[in-house]
């Protein structure tokens, strides 16, 4: 996880998107992830 975050920062990525399972939400929150507030999505299926 830390390597992915560091790589994303190194390439100046704007954001990292995750689709966590309910069981893994706390894991990602502890690493600084939070709910998206500026993302609009339309599911097609």
Main β sheet profile: none
Task: Round the Cα radius of gyration to an integer and report it.
Answer: 12 Å
- Count of all domains: 1
Give the SSE order as H and E letters.
HH
Low-confidence stretches: none
Strand content: under 5%
Q: Which descriptor suits the 3D outline? A: globular
Instruction: Report how far apart the termini are.
Output: 29 Å
Helical amount: 25-40%
Number of strands: 0
- The total count of helices amounts to 2
Alpha-beta content class: mainly alpha
Mean pLDDT score: 91
Can you put this structure into words, describing what you see?
With 45 residues, the protein is mostly helical. The protein has one domain (1-36). It is 33% helix and 0% strand. The chain is globular and about 35 Å long. The termini are far apart.
Topology (SSEs and partners):
Blueprint: H1 2-10, H2 25-30
Features of the shown structure:
mainly alpha; 45 residues
Provide a short characterization of the protein structure:
The chain is mainly alpha-helical. 33% of the residues lie in helices and 0% in strands.
